[in-house]
Each structure stands twice: as structure tokens, then as C-alpha cells.
Amino acid sequence: MKGIEREPLPGFRDFEPADCAQRNFIFNQWRSVAHTFGYEEFDGPIVEALVLFTQKSGPEIVEQLFAFQDKGERAIALRPEMTPSLVRMVGKRLATLKRPTKWFNITEQFRYERPQKGRLRSFYQFNADIIGESSSAADAELIALAIATFQKFGLKKEHFHVRLSDRQLWVLWLKAFGVNQEQEVGALLGILDKWERRSPESIQEDLTASFKDSTKATLFLNTTEVLRKARTLDAIRECFHNCQPSSDMEALEQRLSELKVLLQELESLGVRDWVTLDLTIVRGLAYYTGFVFEVFGNGDQGRALAGGGRYDHLFEKLVGQPMPAVGFAAGDVTLTDLLRKQTLFPPDQSAVDCYVVFEQTERQRALLLAQQLRAAGFSVLYSLDLQKDLGKQQKKAYADDPHYVITLTHELVSQAKAQIKGAESEQIVDLKSLPEYLKQ
RNA sequence: GUGGUUGUAGCUCAAUUGGCAGAGCAUCGGAUUGUGGUUCCGAGGGUUGCCGGUUCAAGCCCGGUCUACCACCCCA
Questions:
Q1: Which of A41, A149, A221, A322 is deepest in the core (most CB within 10 A)?
Q2: Distance, CA of A47 to CA of A69 (rounded, Å)
Q3: How high is the pLDDT of residue A1?
């Protein structure tokens, strides 16, 4: 290797034209869907005060951040997510906020983690949030938006699905086992999160440590196994009835009725078939307060394509004033992998409209034509080589596969004409009328 | 941060037990087609990821390191 390192930093990507086209395609589709749902686009700074992120996620988060000091000795970080910035921005105008407020954005975000497939140190996310509406109708519409963003790429029911879970049901479940304190709840949610990746013995061990009672741990283990397999409202209700006589049935029914509203809304929005009730989704419950969901590609056990849920306490925590909110984010990395695998990216459309070739004696007239066509909105190339004769130019022109090749020979120009050649047509046209001809 | 797998031209890949680093595609140039992508000829491009060790000799063996990938950790 001579000279400088040619590869970007680990976890970062170069976007050569073909990659950039795919990225822009994704951004355009995201933006377009968000608009159809009535979301307004916003943006914020790429760096924020470090405390904005530690306040939300705790001091441990610094390990996962691109964090440093600026020259004014401020502790700052590249944003790892958009929600804190959103809360900060919206927090400035909470008192007069239109409700609901629906905002979206598309941003580059940074996390200092070990890169893997589907997870890089720099990535783009589509974020959408509904602020100021606590009804499940907001959760439902947000999930419908999440589904629409994937449908927009041509992804079908056989390609992806949404798993819907609920933090409040889990809190009720834990409460039924006498777990009330926030710390204990957190510890048990952690165990639940790792559930499927661990052996029953090892789970039993952790549960016994948490409950300080191995019989209770066993009961929790066995009944939770059943609850994790519940896929309907009735099945969930049955779990609570059968497995836990100490359950607060009134609170349960209250919550189930909210879940029912959510499912009905999804049904009315025509997306119920994409959604599976699945309480195995526990990830991120620490931060969410209600319904949570994740989008997964079918088949491969890859990383989630998107995730989100309700976070009604975050505004109070960060800006001191309560405000209900629900949001989700979808990343570009897993999506790009999926779209490439399914070959759902559109074919390359980088070809120019026209390539102008000419005998060098007509160079001046040819360049004038090129500029006239450009002014009319067409993309135009011509050879920058002052020596290349007509044949050489032509060879280069066809290699670029333009929609039209326009040829100016001395003879044609002397008659104020040019030859224009498309895929299946070939004509001699007045030089002056070329822009008009191309517009047809 | 821990463990494992990996790396040869821009891309896809060759190179017998350790024995002169190659091909196709791509790029650039030339010839031909006096205005067509073809065809033909040629060129550039590599300290075999990097550093060190063993050896008369290392792409190949050994150690380290980096990257990518995989499993952990984490996943906002």
C-alpha cells in the first residue's frame, strides 16, 4: 500500500455513485411516505451536549458514543439517536404545541460499537414521532406508517412483519409475582430480554437470585414460557387467569381493552395482517412506557429493520414537563441489505439525456448547443478532449449509453442541422428546434 | 471490550509438497469501422492488508496487528 489508507474508518461507508443512488432512493421513499401521513420534516444539529444523552440513557452510554471535548471544553457527542434532540427542540415550545404534532426526519447517526452485519458506526435513520396524543390511535397510526415505509419499497407480507408487545402488560405480570420496585423490574426485564438465547437452567439460576425463592422462580419460569407463546388477547388473559391468582384483573382488563383498541385501529387501517401480538419483544422496555413494536424481515434471524413505541415519561425527564409521545426509527443498513437481497432497488438511471459529438471544426457551435439543452433542463455530456475526432467521440458517447446521441458534422452545421439518434430513431433536425424536439 | 473465521490488481478469482505473482472483466491507449457499442493489438495497475520471525527461498509456515465477517457485550 502506497500513500494513504484507502478505506474509510471502521464502521463507516463510502458511497460511490451507485451506492449513493440507492441511498437517495431510500431517502426519497421514506420522505414521500412520511408526507402522505402528514408528517413535517425537521432536522437538528449533528452534535449535541453529552448530557442530553447521558440524562436519557445513563452514564454508561458514553462508552457507546463518539464523545469528546470541544475547544471551549464542552463535553459533546455525535448524536447516536434523534429522540433526545427532538425532545429538546419540541421542549422549547411545549406550552403552545399543536397537538398532535407529527414530525419526521432522516439523519446520519453515530454509535461507537463494534461493527457487524447490519450494524455500523455511522448509519442513517428514518425517525417519526407523534407528540401530544396519548390514545392508542396514535400508536396504531404510527405502526401503519412503519408498515407503509416498507411496503413503499415493494416489500410484501412474505418479506416482513411487525411484532407488537407491551411494557405495561409485563409490569402487570411482574406485579402479580410481587415485583414492584423499579430496580427489580429492570433486572427481570433484563432476564426476559435474554430469554430465548439462554438455557432454562441458566434462566432459573438468575430468577432464583432475583426472587430469592427457587419455587417461585420455577413458577415464574414455567408460566412466563406460556405467556411468551400467547398470540391473542384471549391467550394473554388466560395466562393471567390460570397462572396467577394474585393478578390485578381490573388493571389487566383495562390494559387489554386498550390493546384491543390498538388492534381494531390496525384492522381499520388495513395493516392488521402484518402485525403479530408477541410479548417476546422486551428490548428497549426500560425506555418505553407502553406499546412497543419491532419490524423484522421474514426468514433470516437478522437484526430488526425498525423499532419503536410509546415513551410518555421522556419529556418530563428531559425538559421537566410531561407530554405523551410515540415514535419509531428505521435504519438504512438492514434495509439496504434486504432490498439488495430481494433486488428491489430500481435499475441504474444515471444515463444522461444527450451526448453531443462533433467534428472539432464545429466545437464552438456544439458547445453552444450543449448549453442551450442544459438550460432547457436536459443533462448533456460532450467530449472534453480537444483532439478526439468524431469516431472516437462516438465510441465514448455510446459507452455512456445516453438516451440520444446528437452529431454535428461540418456539413450538417452548414445547413443549420444536426443528426439525433435515439435507441430506435434517427433523424436530421434543425439545430434551433432540438430543445423542442427533445421535449416531446 | 472478549473469543473465532478471514484478507492476492478497481471487481470476480487462479497460483502442485514453500520455488520467477497470473487470468477474465473493468480502465487507458492504438488499429479498423472516414458516423456506432463489435473485432484486433497494446499498456497501466500488486512490497499478496500491515509489521516481524523461520527458511537458500514465504501469497503459502509461525507470532503480532488491522479490516471485514461470526458469536458474546450492547442494541437508544
A1: A149
A2: 11
A3: 47
Domain count within chain A: 3
Same structural domain, A408 and A290: no
Q: Looking at the structure, tell me whether residues A327 and A389 fall in a common domain.
A: no
Residue A384 domain-assigned (yes or no): yes
274-303 on A, CB < 7 Å from strand B: 283-284, 286-287, 303
Residue with cell 430481494: A342
- Whether residue A317 contacts residue A91, with contact meaning beta carbons closer than 8 Å, is answered with no
A432 touches strand B (CB under 7 A): no
Residues 6+ apart with CB under 8 A from A324: A131, A132, A133, A134, A138, A310, A312
Q: Is there a single domain that holds both residue A337 and residue A371? A: no
Nucleotides in B strand less than 7 A from protein CB: 1-2, 27, 29-30, 32-38, 46-47, 49-50, 66-76
Shared domain for A104 and A253, answered yes or no, is yes
Distance A8 CA to B45 C1' (A): 21
Whether any strand B atom is under 7 angstroms from the Cβ of A318: the reply reads: no
Which residues in window 126-145 of A are less than 7 A from strand B by Cβ?
none
pLDDT at A92 over 90: yes
DSSP state of A212: T
Q: Which domain holds residue A321?
A: 17-178+246-341
Looking at the fold, whether A151 and A95 belong to one and the same domain comes out as yes
Q: Does A1 contact strand B, using a CB cutoff of 7 Å?
A: yes
The pLDDT tens digits of the residues spanning A15-24 come to 988 899 999 9
Mean per-residue pLDDT of chain A: 92
